[in-house]
Amino acid sequence: MRHSIHKLLLGLAFLGCIAAPLAQADGHMKKADMTLHHMHVMINHAMEMAAQGSNLIMLGKMNMAKGVDEISIAHGEQMIGHAKHLVEEMMSGEAMGKLHASGAGELPAMAYTHQLGEAAMNYIELLEGMSSGKSAKGYEHKH
Predict the structure, then answer these.
(1) What single-letter DSSP state applies at residue 140?
(2) Does residue 85 lie in a domain region?
(3) Is the entire prediction scored with pTM above 0.85?
(4) Which of 44, 56, 95, 139 is deepest in the core (most CB within 10 A)?
């Protein structure tokens, strides 16, 4: 499992470099491609926010700073919740609906975007499990 998480993280680390495969032969991006590119940036932000939230939760659960730990946990939980909502909005919100309605569903970048969104949500859920003390396959984290 550790190897697969590392593999996922390496793949996601290159998220910011997705403009090249979206470029048209003439060097210009179609409007749908640019919208998808912006969605990729938002998904990247969601993953960063979830990672930071998970860290705040685990830090708070160490119970080393009474009065701050509770705030850290609550804020971390909110960050993970917002991260999940953001990915869901990118994958099935109004902007995505408009792209599909315009015929952009056939673009290679669209398939990539949905694959990316699914991987991002899996990553966020792994972080959520880790910070809650329970992860996949029953392994328990101690903080």
Answers:
(1) B
(2) yes
(3) no
(4) 56
